[in-house]
Design brief:
Layout (H helix, E strand, L loop, with lengths): L6 H15 L4 H17 L1 E2 H6 L5 H19 L11 E3 L7 E7 L9 E3 L3 E3 L2 E3 L2 H13 L3 E7 L17 E2 L7 H13 L9 H22 L3 H33 L4 H26 L7 H6 L2 H11 L2 H10 L4 H12 L3 H9 L4
Helix pairs in contact: 1-2, 4-6, 6-7, 7-11, 7-12, 8-9, 8-11, 12-13
Length: 357
């Protein structure tokens, strides 16, 4: 739901290095720095907006809700108590950044890009859609399957100095349903708790686990019956989508890892994708009463899109088990996640997998 947009922070940090070291990718980093600073300059403190008689009444209500959620994140979930999400910026567009992800024709392994300080990630972010589309076109020329999608928010990991540099609330998500707004704030704040520089799947799955646990607590204790009902309908479709697409992802992965010839894999892949889209239409009609919110995803589905799904979800069960093993104590849980993040990737994955033993 929320970002794979940690790249915004990666690009910002890397850009500072490139400006002093003659980096060949300086154009990319320059757009990242400019885009991030433009966003920060647009942000105003929430108390100032709430006190402004000219502020939109609906926006004021949402901003007040966001601050209750933000306080809950600190008091109940033990997430960082800082200036993040205490200001608001209207970007006048529908996404904070646009991410580009890519995968080979016969693999679900995402292409990665590496950045100074922040490490490697399986996506590359742009503050302008045209720039993302242009880069995506270049990757297609290299025979990658590519997906470009808008990201409503991203985290700078809490590593930038001063309150002015803290991540703001954005128009791209402030009007989301209450349960989704809470989950997004919890997700992005989680990135400030623990971050493994070489492991997108670890980072995003951890944040997804926190958002699910925290979101359930917020809805149970603070939300209205209407908000809970609204969220239940939304989340029911999301769970259907997650189970459905992960099942098809497994089938594609098994095909790509099989000993079949490339020609046979291509033929079977086309058959699987056609069958998936047909079964999606049935699910949409019979379970969702025609809800079409996922039509775009299925129309553009490819290996890159399936690769992103794994980044958000693959390791979530391990983190949820770790939370239970930590006595459902967030501080103990975060300490253990930080310990895992400091391990080499292979050891980290093995330790997380062992939570199921």
């Amino acid at each position: 739901m929320a970002s794979l947009g940690l790249l915004g922070a990666a690009a910002l940090a890397a850009g500072a290095l490139c400006l002093t070291s003659g980096c060949s990718a300086i154009g990319y980093y320059a757009q990242s720095i400019n885009g991030h600073l433009t966003m920060l300059r647009a942000a105003r403190p929430v108390p100032e907006l709430l006190a402004d008689g000219a502020s939109d009444a609906v926006l004021k209500e949402r901003l007040a809700l966001s601050q209750r959620i933000r306080d809950f994140a600190v008091a109940e979930l033990k997430l960082p108590d800082n200036a993040s999400y205490r200001r608001f910026a209207d970007l006048k567009r529908g996404a904070a950044v646009w991410n580009v992800v890519a995968a080979p024709e016969l693999s679900l392994q995402l292409k990665t890009w590496c950045y100074p300080i922040m490490g490697c990630a399986g996506y590359r972010g742009y503050f302008e859609r045209d720039a993302a589309d242009s880069y995506a076109a270049a990757l297609r020329e290299e025979h990658y399957e590519v997906s470009v999608y808008g990201v409503p928010a991203y985290s700078t990991l809490g590593r930038l100095p001063g309150d002015w540099m803290a991540d703001p609330l954005l128009n791209t998500f402030i009007h989301w349903p209450e349960g989704e707004l809470a989950r997004l704030i919890f997700h992005e704040l989680s990135h400030q708790v623990a971050y493994a520089a070489d492991d997108t799947e670890f980072n995003e799955s951890f944040a997804t686990a926190v958002e699910r646990i925290g979101g359930a607590r917020w809805l149970a204790s603070h939300a209205s019956d209407k908000a809970r009902e609204e969220y239940a309908a939304f989340d029911g479709r999301r769970q259907d989508f997650r189970a459905f697409t992960m099942g098809w992802r497994e089938r594609l992965d098994a095909l790509y890892r099989s000993g079949a010839s490339d020609a046979a894999k291509r033929t079977h892949k086309a058959e699987l994708m056609a069958q998936m889209r047909s079964e999606y239409e049935t699910m949409k009609r019979e379970r969702w009463s025609g809800f079409a919110g996922y039509d775009g995803w299925f129309a553009r589905a490819n290996n890159a899109a399936f690769g992103v799904l794994a980044a958000y979800n693959a390791l979530v069960p391990g983190f949820e088990r770790l939370f239970e093993r930590s006595g459902r104590d967030f501080e103990r849980f975060y300490a253990e996640v930080k310990r895992l993040a400091a391990l080499p990737k292979s050891e980290r994955r093995a330790a997380l997998a062992s939570t199921g033993d």
